[in-house]
Every structure is written in structure tokens, then in C-alpha cells.
Write a structure and sequence with these properties.
Elements (H helix, E strand, L loop, with lengths): L19 H6 L16 H12 L3 H32 L10 H45 L2 H6 L2 H43 L1 H48 L1 H6 L3 H27 L1 H25 L5 H23 L1 H18 L19 E9 H4 L12 E10 L4 E5 L6 H7 L8 E6 L2 E2 L5 H6 L1 E5 L9 H5 L11 H10 L3 H5 L18 H15 L3 E5 L7 H15 L3 E5 L11 E6 L2 E6 L1 H7 L2 H13 L1
Parallel strand pairs: 3-8, 3-9, 6-7, 7-8
Antiparallel strand pairs: 1-2, 1-4, 4-5, 9-10
């Protein structure tokens, strides 16, 4: 049977995130509305991160012990100075003065080794956690349902998987080092201060809670600002992605000024939020310094009074002041970590929301080796609004994409789907591989409801060729045999047969490395017709019993169209085929033509019968014929 098929864009094809924008654009605005997620409390986020740290607890404990050694070495320095001033200048260290430099050098060596060990162990730990987070996020993204791509554009997903996860890495390295090591240092120095002069230490103990209270108040503001900043960053990345992806349209329509204005607005809003975050974060240090200066003034006054009553020696006073000065630096570090800590926790919220996304069923269902290709649509209805909700509430008639679809497709039949734009053709074929499930009725394959079949087995029965070809930055062979788990699993003989059937053998033979030549990003090293035939070769290699064609030749020149059409005719042999067509002259030899309007089947029959009927199909055919003339 001869049939000419021309393909147009559809969201039916399995996509990577880079094409989620087109999916989003073709859907209803409220397709998958979800309430905004509430911010998770810090304790819950910390506990969640702890589950990733637990398998690495040996490394984690080693890092903490190394940081404890660093903290103790910090507190040992003022003790050495105290003994030197009180005993060294009084003659008690005569003949033993070498002890002091030996102790200082020894402490420096121990401190250096401990610092290196803690940094290395924490980087080892954090990079293992980073790897696990990235793999879980990407796996969840791959197995997420189509509705997920309605809610998230490519820029948001790239930002989460590649960039936001680095903020969590910052928590586990620099922030955690500061938090643990400097906290231990503060405790060690406070213990020394209390042992040296408990009266003076009480003043320090009063100042610290005040600083902690003020910092906690600033924390809340930073967390809110970071969350808004993250959202704006995603929106700005989306603007860049659209401008880069549509550069031809931008240049042809002189849209540079418009795109620049869009990006400038986003960049200025980002700048405003960054300045607000800088103001909030900048309050930490001056507040800490002012309170510390007040405490130091009071301490100096009391110390002078105590020295007059012989309550404080020069050495103990010097050691106390030195310990206090040493205390300022870790306190400053602790107050400065609030901004990166809150930024990291905000990123963790985003990451865990992605990891917690529901996924399509990966196991279960009846196994299916190879279908005969009999398809039945029984009273099928679908509404994007209803599909995006957890409940099975019925979509309103105005938002229903499909209504009361009853259609039987026999094995090996070629069914053409035609109708005005928005009539539901693409939505109908989207239901077959279960990118969405009907909100009403059911679909059966070989008499078995799709919901009872294994999802992986179901999708193995379907091949898809579209005008909007998706190729990968890999070799010709890898693109033809896409889905093979590794290069070793690719059947090269089968690849060659698929290329020959798609009229690509001569083209591939002329490439530098033949079928092992990398074709670049989305097949940029191939012409439009070659890319289309490569997509057909992929479908031939898959050898699925059901084929979906969506305007595969409409964007090609006459010679490329002839070659692609010949390849399609070979592909369609002995397969149940659903063809979405806009140019009616290409589907005249279809077994049956199904005409849709506003989500309903209004006519079906052969080309000749529908023309004789004088209905919607005849009207569309007449308009196209008149336009062609």
C-alpha cells in the first residue's frame, strides 16, 4: 500500500529536558497545576541530609576528630603564652626555654596535618554525597511522567541538577568546616577562659546568646530572600535558553532589543535581591563586632581592678586577652556562614522536591512480548486540567481535549487523523504510550487495557517519527540503536540494515568514521532530510508493531521528501500505523481517515467516501485544493 505521510511537531515523542519548553507551550496553561510547596524547616532538611551522610559515617567521624584536634591546638597557644610570661621571665624556665619553641612548632605541625585531614575527608564525603544526589535527581527526572515537564522547564532542571546541588556541596564543605571546627574552637577557648578567670568569662557568656538571638532573626530574612533569588535565577536562565534556542527567529524579526529588555528586567530584579541579601548578611559582622567591643571594654576594666588586688597575674591576663582575641575570628566565621548556609538549605529544598517527585511505574503489569497491533479506544475522554490533579474529578467541557472517543484500529491498518488545529489529534496519540492516562474511558491493546500492561513492554511496541526530530550528540550507530545500554549491546549488522532501509547507507559511508561518526548536537552535522531519515532508521531498528507518524516530511525539499517518503513506506509495511496529517493529499490511500473536531470524532471513512459525504473533511480538502491552485 502506498501512503505519503508528512510529519509535524508533537509532544508525543519521548524527550529530554531541553525540549520540555515545546511540550509546555503546546499544553493548557493549567495542565498540571500544583500548590506551591511549603518551605521545609531547617531541622527536617538537616535530618534529610543526614541520611546521605550516614553511609559515610566513618569518614564523617574522622573529619570531626581532625577538626577537634585543630580546635584544641588553638586553645593551647594562650596557655603556652601564659606559662611563658608567668614562669619564663621569673627564672623557672632557665635551661628549658627550648620547650616553648618546640611546643609552638609541634602544635603548628599537628594543626596543619589536622586541617589538611579534615578538609580532605570532608571533600571526599561531600563529593560522594554530591554524586548520589545528582544521580538520584537525574534518574527521577528521566522516570517522571509527562506532567512533570509541564511544571518544569529545561532551565529549571539544568539549574537544579548541575548548579543548585553545588550549594549543598558548599554546606558539606566550607560551611560545615566552619560550623564544626570554629564551634569546637569557641568551646575550647571558652573552657580555657573559664579555667583562667571564670568571672571575666561570664561576661563573654552573656554576649554570645545575644549575638545568637540577633543572628537567628537575620536568618529568617536571608532564607526568604534566597528562595526568591533562586526562583528569579531560574526565570533568568529560561530567558537565556529561549533567546539562544530561537536565535534565528530573534535575528530575522529584529528581536534583539526586545530580548535585551526582557533579560535586563530579570537581571535588575536579581541585582535588587542580591543587594537585599548583602544588606541582611552584612548586619551580622558589625553587630558581632560592636557587642564584642563592649564585652572587651568591660573585661579590661574588671581585669585592671582585679590586678590591683593581686587577683590577676600579667601572664594570666595576657593569656586571657589572647584567648579572647582568638575567639573573635571563629565567632566572625560563624556569623558569616548564615548567608551560604541559608542559600544551601534553600537549594536543598529544591533538590529534595525534585527527588520526591512521583515517577511512572517501573515494574509490575502484565508482560507483553510483541503485540499484534489491535487498538481500541472505548469512550475515551481527556482533560489537561483533570489530568494534572490527584483526584479523578471530571474536567469541564470547555477544557476537555478529548470527549467520548470510540475507535477500533485493526492490526496492520493505516489510520489517518485529521482535523483543525486543536481538535485533539496529538492528544489522542499521546495517550497510546501512556504519556497521559485518559480521565474517562479506557484504551486497549490486543484486548488488554493499557493500565494492566507493563509500561516498559507497552512502550517497546511503539515507534514514533515526527517532523521535530530529536537526535543526540553521539554516533550514528548510537542514535539508530538508541535505548541500547552500552556500545557492546548495539547490533551493527542490524544498524546497517536500518540505514539501508532508510536510504542512508551512501550518506553514512561518506562520513569520516562511517556509522561511528559523531553527528553533533541534535544532528547538526546532517541535513534536514538526513536527520529525518536517521529518525526513520531508529524506528526501523526498533521494529515495533505500532507506528505513529506526525507530519514527517512537511519541512523538507522535494528531493529529501522523496527519499524520506520511500523510507517511510518501507517502515509502515505490516505495522499498525497512526498518521497525523495536515496536508490531506498525503493520506488519500489510508485504510481509514478519522476526522476530529473539538475533541470528538465527527467523521470516519475512506478518502472517497468522506469526499462524497460532503462534511468537514470535504470542506478541508476543498480549502486546501483551492489554496494549492
Amino acid at each position: 500500500m502506498q501512503l505519503k505521510c508528512r510529519l509535524r511537531r508533537t509532544a508525543c515523542a519521548h524527550r529530554l529536558p531541553r525540549t520540555s519548553v515545546s511540550i509546555q507551550a503546546n499544553s493548557s496553561p493549567d495542565a498540571t497545576a500544583r500548590p506551591a510547596a511549603k518551605p521545609e524547616p531547617e531541622q527536617k532538611l538537616g535530618k534529610r541530609l543526614g541520611t546521605y551522610l550516614w553511609p559515610q559515617r566513618g569518614i564523617f567521624i574522622g573529619a570531626i576528630l581532625a577538626m577537634a584536634v585543630v580546635a584544641l591546638s588553638e586553645a593551647a597557644i594562650p596557655k603556652i603564652v601564659t606559662d611563658l610570661l608567668d614562669k619564663g621571665f621569673g627564672g623557672q624556665y632557665v635551661g628549658r626555654l627550648w620547650h616553648v619553641p618546640a611546643l609552638l612548632i609541634g602544635i603548628a605541625v599537628i594543626r596543619g596535618v589536622a586541617q589538611f585531614s579534615s578538609n580532605y575527608l570532608l571533600n571526599l564525603l561531600s563529593n560522594r554525597v554530591l554524586l548520589r544526589l545528582r544521580l538520584e535527581m537525574f534518574e527521577r527526572m528521566l522516570h517522571a511522567p509527562a506532567a512533570f515537564y509541564h511544571r518544569n522547564n529545561a532551565a529549571t532542571l539544568i539549574n537544579a541538577v548541575i548548579f543548585e546541588v553545588n550549594q549543598v556541596l558548599q554546606i558539606l564543605t566550607s560551611v560545615f568546616i566552619t560550623l564544626v571546627r570554629d564551634s569546637l574552637t569557641v568551646l575550647a577557648l571558652l573552657a580555657f577562659l573559664f579555667w583562667t578567670n571564670w568571672q571575666l568569662t561570664l561576661i563573654v557568656a552573656v554576649v554570645l546568646p545575644v549575638i545568637g538571638f540577633l543572628v537567628s532573626r537575620i536568618n529568617r530574612r536571608l532564607r526568604s530572600l534566597n528562595r526568591d533569588h533562586q526562583k528569579l535565577t531560574n526565570e533568568a536562565a529560561y530567558v537565556v535558553e529561549e533567546a539562544a534556542g530561537g536565535f534565528k527567529v530573534v535575528k530575522l524579526h529584529g528581536g534583539e532589543a526586545y530580548e535585551m529588555q526582557r533579560f535586563r528586567r530579570m537581571a535588575e530584579r536579581l541585582r535588587g535581591y542580591s543587594m537585599r541579601m548583602a544588606v541582611a548578611a552584612g548586619l551580622n559582622q558589625p553587630i558581632t563586632q560592636i557587642l564584642a567591643a563592649i564585652a572587651l571594654s568591660v573585661i579590661l576594666t574588671i581585669a585592671v581592678i582585679q590586678s590591683q588586688t593581686s587577683g590577676t597575674t600579667i601572664g594570666s591576663f595576657t593569656g586571657f586577652v589572647m584567648a579572647m582575641l582568638l575567639l573573635v575570628s571563629p565567632l566572625k566565621h560563624l556569623t558569616d556562614i548564615n548567608q551560604p548556609l541559608q542559600r544551601g538549605l534553600t537549594a536543598a529544598e529544591m533538590i529534595f522536591r525534585l527527588i520526591d517527585e512521583p515517577i511512572e511505574a517501573q515494574t509490575g503489569g502484565k508482560p507483553l512480548d510483541r503485540a499484534t497491533g489491535v487498538i481500541d479506544f472505548e469512550k475515551v475522554g481527556f482533560g489537561y486540567a483533570a489530568a494534572g490533579k490527584a483526584s479523578e474529578s471530571k474536567a469541564s467541557e470547555s477544557k476537555a481535549a478529548l470527549q467520548d472517543i470510540n475507535l477500533h484500529v485493526g492490526a496492520g491498518e493505516v489510520i489517518a487523523l485529521v482535523g483543525p488545529s486543536g481538535s485533539g489529534k496529538t492528544t489522542l496519540v499521546n495517550l497510546l504510550p501512556r504519556f497521559f492516562d485518559p480521565t474517562q474511558g479506557r484504551i486497549l491493546l490486543d484486548g488488554v487495557p493499557l493500565t494492566e500492561l507493563s509500561l516498559a513492554d507497552l512502550r517497546r511496541q511503539i515507534a514514533f517519527v515526527s517532523q521535530d526530530v530529536v537526535l543526540f550528540n553521539d554516533t550514528v550507530a548510537a542514535n539508530v540503536a538508541y535505548g541500547a545500554s552500552s556500545e557492546d549491546d548495539i547490533d551493527m549488522a542490524r544498524v546497517e540494515r536500518a540505514l539501508a532501509a532508510a536510504n542512508l547507507s551512501d550518506t553514512v559511508a561518506g562520513l569520516p568514521e562511517g556509522a561511528l561518526t559523531n553527528i553533533g548536537d541534535n544532528g547538526m552535522r546532517l541535513s534536514g532530510g538526513q536527520r529525518q531519515r536517521l529518525a526513520i532508521a531508529r524506528a526501523i531498528y526498533k521494529d515495533a508493531p505500532i507506528l505513529i507518524l506526525d507530519e514527517a516530511t512537511s519541512a523538507l525539499d522535494s528531493e529529501s521528501e522523496r527519499q524520506v517518503q520511500a523510507a517511510l513506506e518501507r517502515l509502515m509495511q505490516n505495522r499498525t500505523t497512526l498518521v497525523i496529517a495536515h496536508r490531506l493529499s498525503t493520506i488519500e490511500n489510508a485504510t481509514r481517515i478519522v476526522v476530529l473536531e473539538q475533541g470528538r470524532i465527527v467523521e470516519q471513512g475512506t478518502h472517497a467516501a468522506l469526499l462524497a459525504q460532503g462534511g468537514l473533511y470535504a470542506g478541508l480538502h476543498r480549502i486546501q485544493f483551492a489554496t494549492a491552485q
